[in-house]
Amino acid sequence: MIRFRSVLAGTVAVLFPAAVLAQATATAEPASAAFATRQVLFWLLLGTLAVVVLLFLVLLVAVIVQLRPRLRKVYNLPTVRSSWSGKVLGLLVGDPVLVRGEVRDEILDHDYDGIHEFDNDLPPWWKYGFYLTIVFAVGYLSYYHVAQAGKLSQAEYETEMQQAALLVSADADDPNKLTTYQPLTTPADLSSGKALFATNCAPCHGASAEGKVGPNLTDEYWLHGGEVNHVYKTIKFGVQGKGMVAWKGKLSGKQILQVSSYILSLQGTKPANAKEPQGEKETLARPLASR
């Protein structure tokens, strides 16, 4: 992945120096703006490559059209026409024998209710496809059944059900009973929680959770409990009469847990313009930081 990014950056630097300068300037912008810039550069490079490939194909077709009479003379040579490379050459001069196969139209001595059978080859594409299925079957059997290196569908199903069970509580829809989740600590979960927070929670709690209409979520004071299952409950069911809406039905259980875990990762970050403490003080074990 690192090599690919290096090659991509080098190619862009050669083809689009102004774009590279713009990208360098964008490093001082927020992460979202930098990501958007990289996306633009990626699609610009991809479009350029597509144009180059298209021009190459057009040039190749033009060369073949110009050389077609000479290619046909070569193809008509007996030693060339019957070879596999000659059949490939036949595609360029308009003879699809490589794809269609030999059509001899010789009737065999079979007669079933007036139905006659011709002695023609199976289409090569069909035969090659059949050979490919044999190779695939041997590889599949060796990988999944002999070496047992991969999981079969039943094992994958059981694994997914076990993972789902970690995010489903027997009392998940009872607001009077707490769940028993543990904070998520993987970078992927915390990154997803950060994105969900920025979209849904930042308008009331601030971009850095410093507190606006809602309370500051980075200090040690909590109105409705700061343990992950208390935070999960507050996000899912909301707080009537306090302006905290219920996100049940809008976010999935895993998304709510991701947001809850991200909030806890912000403990002690002390953002600028933090709102004064509200609620009761709780000392929590801080999960893996998101940045």
List keywords for this structure.
mainly alpha, Cytochrome Bc1 Complex, Chain D, domain 2, two-stranded antiparallel ribbon, elongated, disordered N terminus
Number of strands: 4
Helix content: 55-70%
Mind telling me which CATH architecture of the largest domain this is?
Orthogonal Bundle
Largest sheet: 2 strands, antiparallel
Counting DSSP H or I runs of 4 or more residues, the number of helices is 11
Structural Rg: 33 Å
- Top-tier CATH class of the largest domain: Mainly Alpha
CATH topology of the largest domain: the name is Cytochrome Bc1 Complex, Chain D, domain 2
Written description of the protein model:
Helices cover 57% and strands 5% of the residues. It has 11 helices and 4 strands. By secondary structure, the chain is mostly helical. Mean pLDDT is 80; it is low at 1-7 and 12-28. The strands form 2 sheets. A two-stranded antiparallel ribbon has the order 1-2. A two-stranded antiparallel sheet has the order 3-4. The two termini are 21 Å apart. It folds into 3 domains: 2-91; 107-146, no CATH class; 187-281, Cytochrome Bc1 Complex, Chain D, domain 2. It is elongated.
Layout of strands and helices, then pairs:
Blueprint: H1 2-15, H2 17-26, H3 31-75, H4 78-81, H5 84-93, H6 97-100, E1 107-112, E2 115-118, H7 124-146, H8 153-166, H9 187-205, E3 221-222, H10 228-237, H11 253-265, E4 280-281
Antiparallel strand pairs: 1-2, 3-4
Helix pairs in contact: 1-2, 2-3, 3-5, 9-11, 10-11
